[in-house]
Amino acid sequence: MKLTRRFPVQAGALALCAIAAGGAFASSHREAPSIAGTPKLDGTDFYMFRSYDPARTAYTTLIADYQPDQSPAGGPNFFNMDPNGLYEIHIDNNGDGKEDLTFQFRFQNTLRDIAVPSGGVQTSIPLVQAGGITAPNQPTSNLRETYTVSVVRGLRRSSAGESVKKLDGTTVFDKPTDNIGEKTFGVAPGYANYAAQHVYDVAIPGCDAGKVFVGQRKDPFVVALGPIFDLINLAPLGSTNVPNSDALAGKNVTSIEMEVPTACLTGGGSPIIGGWTTASTRQGRLAANPPKSGHGTAYLNGGAWSQVSRLGMPLVNEVVIGLKDKDRFNNSQPMDDKQFLPYVTNPALPVLIETLFPTAKAPTNFPRTDLIAAFLTGIDGLNKPANVVPSEMLRLNTTIAPTPMGTQSNLGVAGGDLAGFPNGRRPGDDIVDIELRVAMGALCVLTTDTDKFKLGCKPADAPAGALAFTDGALQTPAAFPAVFPYLNTPLPGAVTQP
Predict the structure, then answer these.
(1) E strand or H helix at 46, and its extent?
(2) Cβ(396)–Cβ(60) below 8 Å
(3) Residue 487 falls within a domain, yes or no?
């Protein structure tokens, strides 16, 4: 089918399309007005999947990525986490929209204040390193970033939680310095070997042992971001592999990762779990005058925690939630998602796509029961818990075996791979292409009244539901490691000169 581009002539309609397209498909990279001003607390992506390392299939991997658009050459300070923030991964294991298990991460920066002799005076260096780095907390590292992990059972503020520990009983973990460059860490695999020393085997209270890693990674998301900003200035039925189309190909992120025994996460009696990540800061923040020395001490913080970032299913705040409610969504809890229901039952994105490409007809079934299933309840027969309270989160049926990396479909369930998105999410799932197609009715086309997936819609409701919508930026499972931490080594800020 040939699509003909038609731009709206009314200024109001044009502005509406620009808002929708401009905020779309960056998988929570500055997706709401307020969070754009606090990038250290900005969650970019959340992943939850049965570990597909053949030796770890009894585990589930949780990945929460933060701090979008990291330039590898982002010195001299690079991308430390906020020591005044609270980063959390939540698990709902009974379908009621409330967290039953929360993993809390808190960070601390310690300045070593390395000084060098300069004309008889010891002068503090302006860099985060004073030489090569090959191991955690070396004397050449001027800034040590550490973190602690706690697990809270029940509501997240119901207790202080219990400490996750290394197997030696200690509770403080080192976070690797970002990939400054090959002179600091050595040519490849120098940084990879250094970062691997920060993958910790841990004892999780009430569970068997798991793994933890926090550190910089190559941004795993792919998207043709420039054309999307420009009123979807691409061929949405064109090639799925357009050269140089991935706008994030040269970017890094910071990943918070855990590999947890699946039996630890399903303690609510259901094999289907829901997950999401949040970041919070104190309600009160004052600029210190003068600030104390070091990183993260320029402000005085107090008061209760205030949630400023929320991410479960990808792209929800970008292409589902209206601009006026994006900050409110970031502050909300899944159990209160009824307030956002009209954005799912009567979505704006398909209408905007049809406006720009008139032959790509939007689905006609209202309310959009297929989107309610995908985003709010889970899909019946796939990952819908019994007695579920409609609430937005990533859902995973842990009884579905992981698909080996070599046979994964980048289209997940839509590609016949039930271990992929929207049944959880893996790094190799091509989220932009999948969600473009789901928005235009792909789930209606995949189901009939006799199928096990009861979605309340039929192929006739989705005239464009079978079309292969794409942004041209190809995501492939083969691009990622097959073992924890599952994401690629971050790009270096500089390479060694020949």
Answers:
(1) strand 43-50
(2) yes
(3) no
Domain count, the chain: 1
497: in domain: no
Question: What span, in angstroms and rounded, lies between the C-alpha atoms of 31 and 29?
Answer: 5
Q: What is the pLDDT of residues 378-412, one digit of tens each?
A: 999 999 999 999 999 999 999 999 999 999 999 99
CA-CA distance, 32 to 339, in Å (whole number)? 18
pLDDT greater than 70 at residue 9: no
Taking only the tens place, the pLDDT of each residue in 31-43 is: 777 887 889 999 9
Outline where DSSP puts E strands in 404-495: none
Does 264 score more than 90 pLDDT? Answer: yes
H-assigned helices in 81-211? 182-185, 190-196
Would you state the torsion angle of the CA atoms of residues 164, 167, 168, 173, taken in this order, to the nearest 10 degrees? -50
Whether 4 is in a domain gets the answer: no
Tokens of 18: 């620009």
Q: 311: which strand partners?
A: 277
pTM: 0.93
Q: Please state, in angstroms and rounded to a whole number, the distance separating the CA atoms of residues 298 and 118.
A: 28
Q: Domain limits at 292?
A: 11-479
Structure tokens at 204: 């999780």
Closest to 166 (Cα-Cα) out of 128, 136, 134: 136
For residue 61, tell me if it sits in a domain. yes
**Residues making up the chain, counted from first to last:** 498
Structure tokens at 137: 């907390």
Work out the percent of the chain whose per-residue pLDDT is above 90: 76
